[in-house]
């Protein structure tokens, strides 16, 4: 997986996390559709962790 693929999957994860769709499912299906290598569970967990950090940062003062 190259850097561009990681950015694309990060955007899909970030948007999909707040919609009533499976963001984790999209992280598995999108690479399959485009013929990319599967990034593995560690990458998926890192994207979810990044989403949590973004939310904590955004809502820190609330």
TrEMBL record:
Keywords: Antibiotic resistance, Cell membrane, Hydrolase, Membrane, Transmembrane, Transmembrane helix. It is found in: Cell membrane. It is an enzyme of class 3 (hydrolase). Its main location: membrane. GO terms for cellular component: plasma membrane. Signal peptide: none annotated. It catalyses: di-trans,octa-cis-undecaprenyl diphosphate + H2O = di-trans,octa-cis-undecaprenyl phosphate + phosphate + H(+). GO terms for molecular function: undecaprenyl-diphosphatase activity. The chain crosses the membrane at residues 7-34, 40-60. Its EC number is 3.6.1.27. InterPro entries: UppP (IPR003824). It is a multi-pass membrane protein. It comes from the Bacteria. GO terms for biological process: response to antibiotic. The keyword Transmembrane helix applies. Belongs to the UppP family. This is Undecaprenyl-diphosphatase.
């Amino acid at each position: 997986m190259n850097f561009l693929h990681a950015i694309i999957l990060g955007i899909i994860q970030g948007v999909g996390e707040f919609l009533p769709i499976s963001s984790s499912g999209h992280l598995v299906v999108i690479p399959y559709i485009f013929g990319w290598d599967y990034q593995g569970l560690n990458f998926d967990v890192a994207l979810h962790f990044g989403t949590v950090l973004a939310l904590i940062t955004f809502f820190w003062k609330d």
